[in-house]
Amino acid sequence: MAEAALGLGTNLGDREAALSRAVALLEQMPGIEVTAISGLYASAPWGVEDQPDFLNLCLLIETDLGPMQLLHACKAVEAELGRQARERWGPREMDLDVLLMPGVEMDTETLAIPHPRMQERRFVMEPLAEIAPDWGLDGETVECRTAALKQRAADQICERDDSATRRFAELRAR
Fold it and tell me: What Pfam families has UniProt attached to this entry (predicted)?
Protein backbone atom coordinates (compact mmCIF):
# COMPACT_ATOMS: atom_id res chain seq x y z
CA MET A 1 0.00 0.00 0.00
CA ALA A 2 1.12 3.54 -0.75
CA GLU A 3 0.82 6.60 1.44
CA ALA A 4 -0.96 9.75 0.30
CA ALA A 5 -2.01 13.09 1.73
CA LEU A 6 -5.40 14.59 0.90
CA GLY A 7 -6.70 18.10 1.50
CA LEU A 8 -10.40 18.70 2.22
CA GLY A 9 -12.28 21.97 2.44
CA THR A 10 -15.79 23.38 2.49
CA ASN A 11 -17.45 26.73 3.04
CA LEU A 12 -21.15 25.95 2.56
CA GLY A 13 -23.73 24.51 4.93
CA ASP A 14 -22.77 22.61 8.07
CA ARG A 15 -19.04 22.54 7.42
CA GLU A 16 -18.01 20.26 10.29
CA ALA A 17 -20.70 17.73 9.36
CA ALA A 18 -19.69 17.83 5.69
CA LEU A 19 -16.04 17.19 6.56
CA SER A 20 -17.04 14.37 8.92
CA ARG A 21 -19.16 12.77 6.20
CA ALA A 22 -16.37 13.14 3.63
CA VAL A 23 -13.91 11.32 5.89
CA ALA A 24 -16.49 8.61 6.60
CA LEU A 25 -17.12 8.12 2.87
CA LEU A 26 -13.39 7.81 2.22
CA GLU A 27 -13.08 5.27 5.05
CA GLN A 28 -15.81 3.16 3.43
CA MET A 29 -14.03 2.98 0.09
CA PRO A 30 -12.15 -0.21 -0.74
CA GLY A 31 -8.43 0.39 -0.96
CA ILE A 32 -8.35 3.43 1.34
CA GLU A 33 -7.40 3.45 5.00
CA VAL A 34 -7.33 6.79 6.84
CA THR A 35 -4.28 6.84 9.13
CA ALA A 36 -4.23 10.45 10.40
CA ILE A 37 -6.58 13.43 10.49
CA SER A 38 -5.48 16.99 11.22
CA GLY A 39 -7.45 19.49 13.20
CA LEU A 40 -9.78 21.86 11.37
CA TYR A 41 -8.43 25.18 10.14
CA ALA A 42 -10.54 28.24 9.38
CA SER A 43 -9.36 30.25 6.41
CA ALA A 44 -10.44 33.20 4.37
CA PRO A 45 -11.45 32.41 0.78
CA TRP A 46 -8.72 32.19 -1.85
CA GLY A 47 -9.22 33.72 -5.29
CA VAL A 48 -12.87 34.78 -5.06
CA GLU A 49 -13.10 36.70 -1.78
CA ASP A 50 -16.86 37.44 -1.64
CA GLN A 51 -17.92 34.13 -0.08
CA PRO A 52 -18.03 32.47 3.35
CA ASP A 53 -14.86 31.37 5.13
CA PHE A 54 -13.64 27.80 4.68
CA LEU A 55 -12.91 24.98 7.08
CA ASN A 56 -10.04 22.77 5.93
CA LEU A 57 -8.28 19.64 7.11
CA CYS A 58 -5.73 17.18 5.79
CA LEU A 59 -5.73 13.40 5.91
CA LEU A 60 -3.03 10.82 5.58
CA ILE A 61 -4.13 7.58 4.01
CA GLU A 62 -2.72 4.26 2.97
CA THR A 63 -4.09 3.09 -0.34
CA ASP A 64 -3.68 0.45 -2.97
CA LEU A 65 -5.27 2.81 -5.50
CA GLY A 66 -3.13 4.46 -8.13
CA PRO A 67 -3.08 8.25 -8.38
CA MET A 68 -5.86 8.49 -10.99
CA GLN A 69 -8.04 5.97 -9.12
CA LEU A 70 -7.54 8.01 -5.95
CA LEU A 71 -8.54 11.18 -7.80
CA HIS A 72 -11.71 9.44 -9.02
CA ALA A 73 -12.48 8.33 -5.44
CA CYS A 74 -12.12 11.95 -4.27
CA LYS A 75 -14.41 13.17 -7.06
CA ALA A 76 -16.98 10.52 -6.09
CA VAL A 77 -16.99 11.84 -2.50
CA GLU A 78 -17.42 15.40 -3.76
CA ALA A 79 -20.37 14.30 -5.90
CA GLU A 80 -21.95 12.37 -3.03
CA LEU A 81 -21.77 15.52 -0.92
CA GLY A 82 -23.46 17.62 -3.58
CA ARG A 83 -20.53 19.52 -5.09
CA GLN A 84 -21.85 21.91 -7.72
CA ALA A 85 -19.90 23.24 -10.68
CA ARG A 86 -19.29 26.93 -10.05
CA GLU A 87 -16.68 29.54 -10.82
CA ARG A 88 -13.06 28.62 -10.13
CA TRP A 89 -12.13 29.21 -6.50
CA GLY A 90 -15.79 29.90 -5.70
CA PRO A 91 -17.91 28.42 -2.89
CA ARG A 92 -17.84 24.64 -2.45
CA GLU A 93 -19.95 22.06 -0.72
CA MET A 94 -16.79 19.94 -0.63
CA ASP A 95 -13.37 20.04 -2.23
CA LEU A 96 -10.96 17.09 -2.05
CA ASP A 97 -7.46 17.30 -3.46
CA VAL A 98 -4.71 14.73 -3.76
CA LEU A 99 -1.76 16.64 -2.34
CA LEU A 100 1.16 14.24 -2.08
CA MET A 101 2.04 10.62 -2.68
CA PRO A 102 5.65 10.01 -1.59
CA GLY A 103 7.68 8.83 -4.55
CA VAL A 104 5.06 9.97 -7.08
CA GLU A 105 5.52 12.96 -9.35
CA MET A 106 3.13 13.54 -12.21
CA ASP A 107 1.57 16.39 -14.13
CA THR A 108 -1.37 15.68 -16.40
CA GLU A 109 -4.37 17.76 -17.45
CA THR A 110 -6.43 16.26 -14.62
CA LEU A 111 -3.92 15.58 -11.84
CA ALA A 112 -0.59 16.99 -10.66
CA ILE A 113 1.29 15.45 -7.73
CA PRO A 114 2.55 17.19 -5.68
CA HIS A 115 -0.42 19.54 -5.87
CA PRO A 116 0.95 22.54 -7.80
CA ARG A 117 -0.36 25.33 -5.55
CA MET A 118 -0.25 23.70 -2.14
CA GLN A 119 2.95 25.46 -1.08
CA GLU A 120 1.23 28.84 -1.61
CA ARG A 121 -1.67 28.05 0.71
CA ARG A 122 -1.46 28.09 4.46
CA PHE A 123 -4.84 26.35 4.69
CA VAL A 124 -3.19 23.31 3.08
CA MET A 125 0.30 23.43 4.55
CA GLU A 126 -0.59 24.08 8.19
CA PRO A 127 -2.92 21.10 8.64
CA LEU A 128 -0.53 18.95 6.60
CA ALA A 129 2.39 19.97 8.83
CA GLU A 130 0.32 18.93 11.85
CA ILE A 131 0.09 15.30 10.66
CA ALA A 132 3.08 14.89 8.30
CA PRO A 133 5.79 17.32 9.46
CA ASP A 134 8.65 15.09 8.30
CA TRP A 135 7.30 14.25 4.84
CA GLY A 136 9.57 15.47 2.06
CA LEU A 137 8.53 18.27 -0.26
CA ASP A 138 10.92 19.71 -2.83
CA GLY A 139 13.99 18.67 -0.86
CA GLU A 140 12.77 19.97 2.52
CA THR A 141 10.30 18.79 5.12
CA VAL A 142 6.66 19.83 5.11
CA GLU A 143 7.29 21.47 8.49
CA CYS A 144 10.15 23.59 7.08
CA ARG A 145 8.14 24.58 4.01
CA THR A 146 5.20 25.52 6.24
CA ALA A 147 7.32 27.69 8.52
CA ALA A 148 8.66 29.57 5.51
CA LEU A 149 5.16 30.02 4.08
CA LYS A 150 3.83 31.39 7.39
CA GLN A 151 6.47 34.10 7.26
CA ARG A 152 6.05 34.81 3.55
CA ALA A 153 2.23 34.79 3.63
CA ALA A 154 1.50 36.22 7.05
CA ASP A 155 -1.46 38.10 5.53
CA GLN A 156 -3.29 34.83 4.71
CA ILE A 157 -5.94 34.15 7.35
CA CYS A 158 -5.52 30.59 8.58
CA GLU A 159 -6.11 29.51 12.17
CA ARG A 160 -6.67 26.17 13.81
CA ASP A 161 -10.30 26.20 14.98
CA ASP A 162 -10.43 24.16 18.18
CA SER A 163 -14.20 24.43 18.63
CA ALA A 164 -14.80 23.23 15.05
CA THR A 165 -12.25 20.45 15.61
CA ARG A 166 -14.10 19.34 18.77
CA ARG A 167 -17.46 19.35 16.98
CA PHE A 168 -15.94 17.40 14.07
CA ALA A 169 -14.59 14.81 16.54
CA GLU A 170 -18.00 14.54 18.25
CA LEU A 171 -19.70 14.00 14.89
CA ARG A 172 -17.12 11.34 13.98
CA ALA A 173 -17.72 9.53 17.27
CA ARG A 174 -21.43 9.06 16.57
Answer: HPPK
